[in-house]
Amino acid sequence: PLNFTLPLEGFVFYIPVKRPGHDIGYILSISVLGIVFNIFVLMVFILHKKPCTVAEIYLSNLAAADLFLVSFLPFWAVSAWNKFDWILGLAMCKIVKVSILMNVYCSIYFLVLVSIDRYLAVVHPLSHGAMRRPKCAKISCGVVWILGLILSVPRLINTKLKHEDVKNKTACHEADPTISKTTELMILVLGFFIPISIISFCTVNILKALRNRSIQRVKTRKTDHKADTLVLVVLLAFLICWVPFHLREVPTWLHQAGILTVCTSKEIQHFCGQIFTYLAFFNSVLNPILYVIVGRNFRDKLKELFKQWDQKRSATISRTTSTITTSFFTRWKQKWSGARF
Questions:
Q1: Where are the transmembrane segments (predicted)?
Q2: CA-to-CA distance for 106 and 54, rounded, in angstroms?
Q3: How far apart are CA 80 and CA 88, in angstroms?
Q4: pLDDT band at residue 15 under the 50/70/90 scheme
Q5: Taking a C-beta distance cutoff of 8 angstroms, is the pair 145, 165 a contact?
């Protein structure tokens, strides 16, 4: 059967003609849920009266990166629904593609910062205290946002519009194949292998330290234990969702290099690429759910926030009732005084 391929250059949707609605519906579902859930998480972190911890600063920035990522997915759904005829112009073509790539970089490097923070807290609790201050965390987050933007510049420069006269369609694509391949290699190395190596190192040492503490029955603060559990679960979810996506092109590259003699068919590669892409984007929806299910501190913040709102609402109602009552008795008194005379 005929198939449409939506070339995101690193984000490939393989959409059979017979069922494009299912795929577009899935993209939009991820986008809507991701926007709602991540805004909810950011509201809890921002509106809560207590300042965020270092880990929470990183997780809130991760939620912001996830929010930006899923916010641009509907543009690709519109393009797919329009049979991949890009009608939004060159500016939006560049903005959408760069924003998706930038926030993929930012997401994984925020997790790197979270891993390093928990590594220092668990493995080296008595040293590197300055690195675990909120001010340092905010500066680190700023550096990550700038780094994500810089790493996305090659795609920004290479993204062009191409009009196909035969099909009478305009494609949003990367013009230079060499730059495109370089970008994909950068994503694999800088956006996967290096950060995953750092995360793996930190996670293994965190688990070793926690096991040793358990054996030695060393008492730790409950808040630290809760934070460690949440971080480890979020890291595990990230690995499950993103590892298949980043490794999906490795067999093709090995085949082209002559290292791998047998290569899977294009149809199987496209199908796997589609599934792995959906799984990767689903991570932006999964993270807020994990905060609620696993994050005890997050749930406590949420309860306290609802309590704050309830107290404000009660105070507002009380003031309104008091004002109405005072106004009523004042008018009644004036009326009664007038009736006496």
A1: 24-46, 58-78, 98-116, 137-157, 185-207, 227-245, 275-294
A2: 17
A3: 13
A4: very low
A5: no
| Structural domains of the chain, count | 1
Tens digit of pLDDT for each residue in 246-297? 887 676 666 666 666 655 566 667 777 778 888 888 999 999 888 877 777 7
- With a CB cutoff of 8 Å and minimum separation 6, the contacts of 291 are 41, 59, 230, 298
Q: What angle do CA 7, 35, 105 make, to 5 degrees?
A: 50
Q: What's the pLDDT band for 8 if we cut at 50, 70, 90?
A: very low
Give the residue with greater pLDDT, 120 vs 252: 120
User: Minimal CA–CA distance to 280: which of 249, 240, 312, 317?
Assistant: 240
Tokens standing for 279? 């799984």
Could you identify the residue written with the tokens 């590892």?
A: 243
Cβ(220)–Cβ(213) below 8 Å: yes
**Cα 208 from chain centre:** 28
CATH assignment of the domain containing 132: 1.20.1070.10
Q: Which long-range contacts (CB under 8 A, 24 or more apart) does 233-239 make?
A: 233/290, 233/294, 234/59, 234/111, 234/114, 234/287, 234/290, 235/111, 235/114, 235/115, 235/199, 235/203, 237/283, 237/286, 237/287, 237/290, 238/107, 238/108, 238/111, 238/283, 239/196
Euclidean distance between the first and final Cα of the chain, in Å? Answer: 96
**Domain range holding 106?**
3-294
Chain centroid to Cα 113, Å, comes to 14
Q: Is residue 307 part of a domain?
A: no
Question: Chain-wide mean pLDDT for the chain?
Answer: 79
Burial profile 204-223: b = 16 or more Cβ within 10 angstroms, e = fewer: ebbeebbeeeeeeeeeeeee
Rounded Cα distance, 111 and 241, in Å:
14
pLDDT number for residue 132: 79
Residue 332 lies in a domain: no
Q: Which amino acid is at 264?
A: T
Supply 1's token pair: 């059967």
- Dump strand ranges (E) for 201-304: none
Q: Give the number of other Cβ atoms within 10 Å of residue 120's Cβ.
A: 17
